[in-house]
Design goal:
This protein is α/β, with parallel strands linked by helices and 348 residues long. The chain has one domain (3-333): Zn peptidases (Aminopeptidase, 3-Layer(aba) Sandwich). 31% of the residues lie in helices and 16% in strands. The chain is built from 9 helices and 11 strands. The chain has an 8-stranded mixed β-sheet, with helices on both faces. The protein is globular and about 50 Å long. The protein starts with a helix and ends with a strand.
Length: 348
């Protein structure tokens, strides 16, 4: 078993008890820990692209329901992988995307954990009534720090740096209208235009300084733009948000806000906006707290938080896939969103 999986499991266990090894307080939502130049951040505990690829191939060999497809290549020639569970073309289909930004890594770790669960009895019967698609590492070049620009003053130690942009310095989550990059072109041509997708959750990380009600958030949600989305698509997007909110907010580490800036400036190039508009896919953007590496210390979160943030991803995937599979999403109330505060940036 990989050492980072063991570490993640240990952190989750210690978070549940509230104490880290050596008597140090285990911080979850609301309390940090931040990086600020002194907290441990090490990229060697995260899956590399090669490790992820090997993991997916092994899971494909073990799981009869799983198929691994290469749907494109990155700028640097890395295969882009689509994990497919397509039991019945008449089932509703959910697409989960992780790591459009290469420094937002725990969404990938959680996606891999859930993919592994799909091969066990923990999810028995789930795949009979829903089709699941995963892109677990969209921006592999950025995740490996294999880019055509310098990475200076980045926070993390380890065998590589992780960076937001792709190899050519383009923000792939702003490229869904221009489609100037091979990653975006392949995604639109070979995934969005090929599969009949009903729901999409775009998993990201944001800076570590956002708060709600005086406590740091564990994550924030954003829907498609209300002025550029069909009513039914927008309503179903909010139902996705309701499922996630009810799954995460009651957790001891869960504390969700509304993403700042949502519903104001519209950019067709942003995934949550453009994909809902162009394809009519009900879409939720979910921003986890803190990135795994960055040149800006305020963006980075110490790795003591890796456990609950990875778990937050797994809970999101599990809750939404089950709600779509059993049809409970159709009756999901969306009124919580009316009172959900917009997160604000803490001033230190």
């Amino acid at each position: 078993m990989k050492k980072h999986i063991v570490l993640a499991a240990a952190v989750i266990t210690m978070l549940a008890g509230g104490i880290m090894k050596g008597g140090e307080t285990a911080y979850a939502a609301g309390n940090g820990p931040n990086y600020q130049g002194h907290e441990t951040v090490n990229t060697s505990i995260l899956h590399t692209y090669e490790e992820m690829t090997n993991f997916l191939k092994k899971q494909e060999a073990k799981q009869p329901s799983m198929e691994l497809e290469v749907f494109g290549e990155t700028v640097k020639g890395r295969d882009m992988h689509l994990v497919k569970y397509m039991s019945d073309p008449d089932n509703p289909t959910i697409l989960y995307i992780a790591q459009q930004h290469g420094d937002e890594a725990l969404t990938t770790e959680g996606s891999l954990d859930f993919i592994k669960q799909l091969g066990t009895g923990k999810t028995r019967g789930l795949l009979d009534d829903v089709n699941l698609l995963f892109i677990p590492m969209y921006n592999a070049d950025g995740a490996m720090g294999d880019v055509n620009f310098e990475l200076e003053d980045y926070a993390a130690s380890g065998d590589r740096h992780l960076t937001r942009m792709n190899a050519d310095g383009v923000d792939l989550n702003r490229d869904h209208e221009a489609r100037s990059q091979p990653e975006t072109q392949a995604f639109h041509d070979n995934v969005l235009s090929t599969y009949d997708i009903n729901y999409m959750i775009d998993l990201h990380h944001q800076g570590s300084q956002w708060e709600k009600d005086g406590k740091y958030v564990s994550g924030a949600i954003l829907y498609p733009h209300p002025d550029h989305t069909e009513d039914e698509t927008l309503y179903e997007s909010k139902q996705l948000g309701g499922i996630v909110y009810e799954a995460i907010e009651p957790k001891g580490w869960g504390h969700l806000g509304k993403y700042a800036g949502g519903g104001t400036a519209y950019d067709q190039g942003i995934g949550v906006y453009g994909i809902a508009n162009t394809y009519g896919i009900s879409t939720l953007l979910f921003e986890m707290r803190g990135t795994a590496d960055n040149a800006n210390d305020d963006e980075v979160l110490g790795q003591k938080s890796n456990g609950y943030l990875t778990k937050q991803t797994v809970e999101t995937l599990s809750a939404t896939s089950r709600a779509v599979a059993d049809g409970t999403i159709e009756g999901q109330d969306i009124s919580f969103g009316e009172d959900l505060p917009v997160q604000t940036e803490r001033e230190e």
